[in-house]
Specification:
Distance between the termini: 62 Å
Strand content: 15-25%
Order of helices and strands: HHHEEHEHEHEEEHEHEHEEHE
Structural class: alpha/beta
Number of strands: 12
Largest sheet: 8 strands, mixed
Radius of gyration: 31 Å
Number of helices: 10
Helix content: 25-40%
Oligomer: single chain
Length: about 325
């Protein structure tokens, strides 16, 4: 109001420009003078003019208006999902395989949109999501709350195939059409508890046998080191092999299971109603884009081509998580 009065010179013109009454303009300016404890206007014939104190205030006002413009521009970007912060809770193998590539993609396209990552396994990720500590949780479907849970909206991301890792010198390392049931008599390597223990036992039971646990290990370097040493075999998710194992170990043969084809299902979840938030929607879109480009093949030795189409029926999928 003070700036408009300086530009137009009269209270009447200021009131018309601001769509107010002259008395309302006078009252507002009087209130501002009392708040600042300095006179802002002085009579000048039939008009009023600004005092030196008012002009000092106006110098700071220009900075305030500029800051308000910047704030409005940032808010506009936030409304479009181009700025802000999205906190993502994700299990360990999903971070390098999905979250990091999605965050890099977003950084290139929307540098003001910040993705913050919190590593958490499935159950903990949903607790963090419910408490509001994270905005998006990545987990395995079998360890997520049921789809009818009213607190969350679940979004499927990908089906991650499970391959089998054998010692490279194993008699079945190069066997054609290897099936999970062919390894029923082997010693198996998996964790003593937790999701991966359940994934391995359920997959083997679906193939017709109960796996005999030879060693308990909970991280992929340990599991693959035991396999490389000829101490057993293990199921390995393709996403984990690509993200964590990286290069090929000549002592390990990773085989695609054509007939059994077990897989785990990766899902994203947000609090119900939040899926339309612009920044969150952009992160979900980026995760979908990365999931769609997953190469679909393991990265260690003796890899068989991934079947192009998964069919139900005789070669039915074992849907684990």
């Amino acid at each position: 109001m003070l700036r408009t009065l300086d530009e137009l010179g009269t209270v009447t013109a200021t009131a018309q420009a601001l769509r107010m009454t002259p008395s309302a303009v006078s009252q507002q300016l009087s209130g501002l003078a009392k708040q600042l404890d300095v006179p802002l206007l002085e009579a000048h014939g039939r008009r009023v003019r600004l005092t030196d104190a008012a002009r000092l205030v106006l110098r700071h006002t220009e900075e305030v208006f500029a800051q308000l413009e910047r704030a409005e521009a940032e808010l506009a970007g936030y409304r479009r999902g181009e700025s802000g912060r999205v906190r993502v809770g994700a299990f360990s193998t999903a971070i390098p395989a999905l979250v990091v590539p999605a965050a890099q993609q977003l950084r290139r396209r929307h540098p003001a949109l910040e993705v913050r990552v919190h590593q958490a396994e499935a159950a903990e990720a949903y607790e963090l999501l419910a408490r509001g500590t994270v905005d998006l949780a990545l987990s395995l479907a079998a360890h997520a709350p049921p789809a009818r849970d009213p607190k969350f909206t679940r979004v499927p991301l990908l089906a991650d195939p499970l391959d089998v890792a054998l010692p490279a010198r194993h008699p079945l390392a190069a066997a054609p059409d290897l099936r999970l049931a062919d390894l029923a008599g082997e010693g198996w390597i998996y964790g003593s508890s937790g999701p991966w223990s359940e994934i391995t036992t359920v997959a083997c039971q679906a193939a017709g046998f109960v796996p005999e646990q030879a060693h308990a290990a909970a991280d992929w370097p340990s599991i693959l080191a035991l396999v490389a040493a000829g101490m057993g075999v293990a199921l390995v998710p393709r996403m984990a092999m690509a993200a964590e194992y990286g290069g090929a170990d000549p002592a390990v043969a990773v085989r695609v299971l054509r007939a059994d084809r077990p897989c785990r299902h990766v899902v994203a979840a947000v609090r119900k109603g939040a899926e339309g938030a612009p920044g969150l929607a952009r992160v979900l879109d980026a995760l979908h884009a990365v999931a769609a480009t997953r190469p679909g093949r393991p990265t260690a030795k003796r890899i068989e081509p991934l079947p192009g189409v998964v069919r139900a029926g005789k070669d039915k999928n074992v849907q684990l998580n």
